[in-house]
Structure formats: structure tokens, C-alpha cells
Amino acid sequence: MYALKVLIIAVWIALVAAQQQSYLGFNSGATLDDNKAKQQADFEKEFKAAQGLHGSPGSFNSVRLYTNIQFGTTDTPISAFQAAIATNTSMLLGIWCSGTKGITSELNALQSAISQYGQKFVDLVVGISVGSEDLYRISETGIENKAGVGTGPKEIVDFIKLVRSSIANTPLSKKPVGHVDAWSAWDNSSNSAVIEAVDFVGTDLYPYYENDKGNTFSNATNVFNYIYYKTLSAAGDKPVWITETGWPVSGPTFGQAEASVDNAKGYWDQTGCSLFGRANVWWYTLLDSNPANKEKFAITKDLSTTPLFNLTCPAGSGAPPSINNDAKSAASTVAITLSLTYMGAYALLGLICLSI
Ligand SMILES: *[C@@H]1O[C@H](CO)[C@@H](O)[C@H](O)[C@H]1NC(C)=O
Ligand SMILES: *[C@@H]1O[C@H](CO)[C@@H](O)[C@H](O)[C@H]1NC(C)=O
Ligand SMILES: *[C@@H]1O[C@H](CO)[C@@H](O)[C@H](O)[C@H]1NC(C)=O
Ligand SMILES: *[C@@H]1O[C@H](CO)[C@@H](O)[C@H](O)[C@H]1NC(C)=O
């Protein structure tokens, strides 16, 4: 009997886990493609476009940011916060940790946001990433690719501790604190102290850039599976969030990888559709913001809600059915049916548990 109860509870937990909402969104830089600061209106336009994409396989109502600081200011909270509140967009916050002696300005901006926007802001925060690809930039490949100034594992761990103590007595105290890096940085055992220090492992996965792994487009799924598995196994029991992934719609050929709209669509269908709704995913991207990057990843032109390719997941990919953004009611019918199914399952399990 005891074993049966344990089994039933295990099934119950699995059901809860399956039902738990996973986040779906895009990355968003602090500047526009011309290096000018994004203002609140720019962020709002972006977040609305993300939520309104035609044929979208789920609502892209989350955003990953790289910094808390409004571009061009010392420590003014980034205007993305107000735009997120205005559009009900959840946020994976970012603390920029490279090329800097400290993160005081980032923490000041965060504290200001808590006091200025209060619970409305707090409720939308999914987690806080302390750093972005800092360890990759100091790795052998990062140096070879001239990826820029990075930060070492010891400093990242120190910054994580600083963030934890800075939010300890604030309404953000329960939010997960993590770090985002390339899969290869997580796979590097010299960085294991960072894994120990985080609540989640954010990973950036780009088969396109894996020019030593057979990165022809037809092999993209194999390369993705290889690098995703490497991150999962390095992360151990820490949850892995896919903080960046995508395939460029235009740009130079990288190794054997060709950038094109067709390949971007193929990657979305094969890789994206196998993840949406099952893992937390912040796709790269809706709007390009790095003029130095020759690869362009935006899946839509000028934030049009009509994307460059059909976003609906192919039948059989297991991804959620597409949301017709012109008829939200259809989506909510699906949601209600699903939650009624779950309620029925819980009730049944509860009855069985009581009767044994
Ligand atoms: C905001 O979005 C969440 C889902 O992300 C939803 O549960 C909630 O009802 C929305 N709130 C409003 C005011 O629309
Ligand atoms: C592994 O990580 C350490 C510390 O971040 C770095 O110095 C080293 O270059 C990395 N190894 C490789 C092969 O990149
Ligand atoms: C495909 O990718 C896998 C994983 O990186 C690699 O081992 C294999 O050699 C690649 N195949 C081709 C044909 O490039
Ligand atoms: C998009 O693709 C889906 C699934 O393949 C298909 O049912 C739908 O008609 C396509 N939509 C457009 C606008 O082509």
C-alpha cells in the first residue's frame, strides 16, 4: 500500500510539473540597431509584436534582458521594465558583468525599480541572470573569435553572492538567481563553482556557430542535441533554461552553416518546435540590436506581426498548436479544457489515495 501511495504521489508531482507553465519569449538588447538607446515606446512596440505574431505556437510574452540599466545612464532602471508592466510581459533580468569592476550600478537600478514599480514589477520577474557569456569570452574559443572582454568564474560567483545579498530583504528574495553562458563554458570543469552557485543554468545554443562539429544545416539537429545534452549533464540537478537559440536569416556562411530564411524556418520547426512549451526558451530573436554582428537573426522585419516565415509548428512536432492571434478565445478554450483535464486527474488520484 505504502509503495502504491508513493507511486501515486510521484505521478501527481509529474502532472504538476507537466502543467507548470514554461516561459516563451525573445531576447532584447538595450539598444536599437543604430546603437541608440531603446526607449519605453520601443520596448512596448517590441513586446506587443512578440505577443501578436501570426501563427505563433504559443504566446511569446516573456523577455530576456541583458542589463537593468537604461543605456547611456549611470543607474537609471531600463525602460523595458515599464514596457513590460504595460504589456504584461514577464522578464528574465540580466546583470551585465563584463568589462566592469563591480555591479553596484546594476544593483542600484534594480533597487530603484523595486521601489518605483513595486509589486507590478516584482510579479513579472522570472529570475535574474548574473552575467551573459562572460566565461565563454575568456575561453579558448572566445579569445580565438575575438568575443571581447569577459569575466572569470571566481568573479561571477562573487557577483552572484552580491546579488543574493542585495535582494535578500526585498520582494525579489525568492526569485531564482543564475548565470547565462555558452554550453561549452558549462561543459568546462574549471567553471563548476558557478554551477554550484546558481539556481538555474542559462545556456546559449547555436549549432550555426559550431564550425568544428559538422555544422551544415542538415546536421543542425544532431549538433543541437549534442550541445544541449552536454549542458544538461554538466548542470546535474540544476534546471537548464535555453536563454538563446536561433539560426540567422541572413549573413555570411560560418564553417558549413548557411544563413537563410529557409534554414531559419527549418531550425524553428525542428528545434524550436521540439522545445516550446516544454522548456523555458528565449529565442534569438525578434529584433536585431547589435550592428557589429553580421548575422541577422530577426524572424520578422521591422517588428511586423507577419513573420518572415510560417511560425506554426509542423504536425507531429509535439509543440503546442498555433495561436491565432486574431482569435484569442480559441486559445483560452484550449487552456480551459486542459486545466479541467488536470483537475479531473488530480481528483481521481486523490480518491484512489484516500481509499487505500
Ligand atoms: C498576465 O499574464 C499572465 C500569464 O503570463 C496571466 O496569467 C495573467 O492573467 C495576465 N494578467 C493580465 C492582467 O492580463
Ligand atoms: C575553461 O575555463 C577556464 C576558466 O573559465 C578558462 O580559463 C579556460 O580557457 C577554459 N578552457 C577552454 C578549453 O576554453
Ligand atoms: C553531425 O553532428 C555530430 C554532433 O556534433 C557530429 O558528431 C557529426 O560528425 C556531424 N555529422 C556530419 C555529417 O557532419
Ligand atoms: C503554416 O503552416 C501550417 C502547418 O504546416 C499550415 O497549416 C498553415 O496553413 C500555414 N499557414 C500559412 C499562412 O501558410
Q: pLDDT under 50 segments (min length 5)?
A: 12-19, 326-344
Strand element count: 8
Main sheet properties: 8 strands, parallel
The largest beta-sheet arranges its strands as 7-6-5-4-3-2-1-8
Q: Tell me, what is the CATH class? A: Alpha Beta
The unique ligands bound to this protein are: 2-acetamido-2-deoxy-beta-D-glucopyranose
The CATH homologous superfamily is called Glycosidases
Give an account of the 3D structure.
This protein is α/β, with parallel strands linked by helices. The protein has a single domain, classed as Glycosidases (TIM Barrel), CATH 3.20.20. It contains 12 helices and 8 strands. It has helices at residues 2-19, 40-52, 80-87, 104-124, 134-137, 140-144, 153-167, 183-186, 192-197, 220-235, 261-275, 328-355; strands spanning 24-28, 62-65, 90-95, 125-132, 177-182, 200-205, 240-245, 281-283. Helix 3 (80-87) links the parallel strand 2 (62-65) and strand 3 (90-95). Helix 2 packs parallel to helix 3. The longest helix has 28 residues, at 328-355. The model is unreliable at 12-19 and 326-344 (pLDDT under 50). The structure holds 2-acetamido-2-deoxy-beta-D-glucopyranose (NAG) (4 copies).
